[in-house]
Design brief:
single chain; alpha+beta; Alpha-Beta Plaits; 5-stranded antiparallel β-sheet; elongated; Cyclic pyranopterin monophosphate synthase; Mopterin_CF_biosynth-C_dom
């Protein structure tokens, strides 16, 4: 089996060759948050945003981004995802929307990048749709929470203090 590296024998960038890897069930969960003014959050939660249901649009954008991660991240494999779920949960303290993405497939490589991309694009979509009323929004805490499957098995992030 070739080394799992993005560099070839001459040091040039390349896509990792996963040909010899077994197909296994794989799953990754990522999270992030977009902090905003309480008035912006209230507008979203109460359905009074001038652009409509911004959470629904952000959810679809995140799912679409997960499916196109290979077009966004150099040397990423094009994957046939079997499931992408996004949860966007408004939270009062701090005033924010928590975003969690869960991506699954049966394949030869993991889906961590797809889950992280889904969270990032969902947050960016919320920012784009709400920037007219709140330019000071902040995207924060984008990270991998858990991954399952593959040769390295199960990994889970440690809890962070709130």
């Amino acid at each position: 089996m070739s080394k799992l590296t993005h560099l070839d024998d001459q040091g040039a960038a390349r896509m990792v060759d996963v040909t010899a890897k077994d197909v296994t069930e794989r799953e990754a969960i990522a999270e992030g948050r977009i902090l905003m003014d309480a008035k912006t959050l209230a507008m979203i939660v109460e359905g009074e945003h001038p652009k409509g249901d911004v959470l629904a649009v952000a959810r679809v954008a995140g799912i679409m981004a997960a499916k196109k991660t290979h077009d966004l991240i150099p040397l990423c494999h094009a994957l046939n995802l079997t499931s992408v779920k996004l949860a966007l949960t408004p939270q009062d303290t701090p005033s924010s929307v928590h975003i969690e993405a869960r991506c699954k497939l049966a394949g030869q490589t993991g889906v961590e990048m797809e889950a992280l991309t889904a969270v990032s694009v969902a947050a960016l979509t919320l920012y784009d749709m709400c920037k007219a009323v709140d330019k000071a929004m902040e995207i924060t805490g984008v990270r991998l929470l858990e991954k399952k499957g593959g040769r390295s098995g199960h990994w889970q992030a440690e809890e962070r203090d709130a």
